[in-house]
Amino acid sequence: MEAFMHEMPAARARLEAPAGPVRLSPLAATLLAASSVMLIGRFDYVTGDYSLAVFYLMPVGFAAWYAGRVSGWFIGLLSAVAWLIGDLALSYPHGHPLMPYWNAVVPALIYGFVVELLCAIRRFQNELESRVRQRTASLAQANVELEAARLHFIEADKMESIGRLAAGVAHEVKNPLMTITMVADYLSEIVPPTESDGRAMIDSLREAVERANRVVSEMLEFARPAPLSLQPDNFQEVAERALGFLKHEMSRKHLGLVREFYPYSPVLFLDRNKMEQVLVNVLLNAIQATPGGGTLTLRTRLQAPDFVAEIDDSGVGISAEHQVKLFEPFFTTKPVGQGSGLGLSVARQIVQLHGGTLSLANRPEGGARVTIRIPIRKKKKP
Amino acid sequence: MKSKRILVIDDEPSITRTIKVNLERSGAYSVCTENHADRAIETARRFGPDLIFLDVMMPEIDGGHLAAQIRSERRLEKVPLVFLTALVSPQETTANGAMIAGHFFIAKPASLAALTKCIEEFTNGQTQAAGGL
Predict the structure, then answer these.
(1) CA quadruple B75, B78, B80, B83: dihedral positive or negative?
(2) Pick from A24, A60, A77, B2: CA 20 to 30 A from residue A42's CA?
(3) Alpha carbon distance A203, A63 (integer Å)
(4) How high is the ipTM of this complex?
């Protein structure tokens, strides 16, 4: 019987498709129906033909619904045979000798019709369910796309506002900075080198200008990122240069650095200056988040199709409240005057322009991890 | 030695004044300043500069438009023109400026050293030939 069931593709399909609240395997349904046919046939024989052909409709319909057309036909024919055997066994003297056969053929045809009808209804039901599933899936997909488009428009609107703001702020702040720079240059000409207080004042003036200029420039950079100049490059070399810029910051806080570079460094298409800026921004955040004496880890690995760089710090990690705001422009947890809140946003924007991603999450062992993924050997036009 | 004639066009008087004082202190430059963009062409014709520093965002006429007007003047068409602007970030330029879309830009705030270097390069004809100004 099992071999027979394997030959019934329609029945096997039922194994894979859910059949409503009752789930029976085609084989179980067929065996159950066959047993019912035997019972009805036995009842038919014992009661002396008091049963009716219509009694067999239940197992036939059951087999057709739960096990498919082949099984339905099989049970239908079995019912007709049971009916015939009962008729022959009782062997009434009256009537034509072929009458029992004729009496069996007619219900067999009726059972076949019922099987075909039920199978057609079942197919129709399956098709409807499939269409509903497809529509639900496409509706869910449309919702996702709609939400993405909504976020995109919000982002574009925000960027446009930031762009206008940045241009205005740049003009209003950098012009006075230009004047201050010229004054500092003038003072440095007239204040003699022996005047240490005067020279210190001039240096402070220049530092203040530089700081204000950096904040405004970051804002401009974020609002209107310059196109990338992608060249085949070695990430490890870029990382070493970025670390070189920050070595004083690290030694000031007595931070240890662990380098876990992947031995084979693939050729990546990078804008070297921009990627340096990404690493400096991310590493500076990590340095500021790590208490004195802590450790930073810079790790690289390959995870096809991406090259992955991870920067771990041993700080306190990111609170759930801050997690959602990390990449919002101008969001910062640093004290006033120590950060513009654009470092991570700019870094992520640059990585995205490289066709990659930048994410930040807490590590289970404590501290935070920034993960940068860059596609390998894929030149993305800026 | 004849001093080089520099015209500075910027609507901020504090900028033009401090640039003028700093450049003229060296004795190598004679500086004329103009704070009204709509009077800049007339001033340039009268002064006959060797190089023009030009702001981009100005209330009467923007720097790009003014540059086109200067270029259309026969006497001024070959005068090197350098934009001084707050709208480029240092990432887009080097400390000594950058050529962007055929124009030379210096990002504000610029140091006296950057301005002096720029003047010397342009008035010696090096960058002018390279940059097509």
Answers:
(1) positive
(2) A24
(3) 93
(4) 0.81
